[in-house]
Amino acid sequence: MPSQKSSGIAAVLSALVNGLGQIYNGQILKGIIIILIQLINGALTVVLIGYVFLPIVWIYAVVDAYRSADKINARNYRRYGS
C-alpha cells in the first residue's frame, strides 16, 4: 500500500517553501512550477506587481498541498481499504 501523506506536513512545507508541499505529495512538476512562479513574483516585487501575486500564489500553494494530500489519502483508502 502506498504511504499516507500528512495534510499538515504538506501544508507546512508549502508554507515554508511554496511548492515543497506539492513535491512531498509526489506532484514534482507542479511543485517546481510553483517554485518558479514564486521566484518570478519575488523578482517582480521590484516593480510592485509581485506584492499582489506573491501572497495569492502562497495561499494557493498551501491550500492545494493540504487538499492534494487529503485526496491522495482518500484515493489510497478506497483502493487498498485500510
Automatic annotation (TrEMBL):
It comes from the Bacteria. The chain crosses the membrane at residues 31-63. Keywords: Membrane, Transmembrane, Transmembrane helix. This is TM2 domain-containing protein. It comes from Salinicoccus sesuvii.
